[in-house]
Specification:
- This protein is mainly α.
- It has 2 domains: 77 residues, no CATH class; 74 residues.
- Helices cover 73% and strands 8% of the residues.
- It has a two-stranded antiparallel ribbon with strand order 1-2.
């Protein structure tokens, strides 16, 4: 005998089912249970049935997206709408996964950039050293040209 069969009053039975699921994070199962309770008590609401049915439908549309999901594996197979909070959790999980991948890529790019910066600095130093060497060689050429000109003057005098 299930725990729900112990309660003679339908309202008490539904209240007990809701209390069993109360607490913790929002789940699809709790949401399904709440709408199941709505569906079971709506026919017993008399003049308030239409109003409460409209409220139930509004809540359903506010909670469930138009995106569908289905069961996998053995029967029973079903297709149902996915609650927005599940889609938000999935989006957060995907974004976090993407953030992790991007962070890893960023670290790799940072390392490459650091290596390129170091190579650039090394090449800049080499370029500076080579420019100094060229300047010194130009001075040497100028000095040799001056000496050659002096020697030519001495020879022709």
């Amino acid at each position: 005998m299930s725990q729900h069969a112990l309660f003679p009053c339908a309202a008490t039975k539904y209240e007990a089912r809701l209390l069993e699921e109360k607490g913790g994070p929002l789940t699809e199962e709790r949401t399904i249970l709440v709408f199941d309770v709505f569906d079971k008590i709506l026919p017993h609401l008399g003049v308030f049935q239409k109003v409460m049915q409209m409220c139930r439908d509004e809540l359903f549309n506010a909670i469930y997206s138009d995106q569908l999901t289905g069961s996998h594996g053995p029967a029973p197979h079903y297709i149902q709408r996915v609650p927005y909070f599940v889609l938000v959790k999935q989006a957060h999980r995907q974004r976090n996964d993407c953030d992790e991948v991007l962070a890893e890529h960023l670290e790799v790019v940072k390392e490459k950039l650091f290596e390129k910066q170091k190579a650039f600095e090394d090449l800049t130093q080499q370029t500076h050293a080579l420019r100094n060497q060229v300047y010194e060689l130009e001075l040497t050429v100028q000095r040799i040209d001056d000496e050659l000109a002096e020697k030519k003057l001495e020879i022709y005098e």
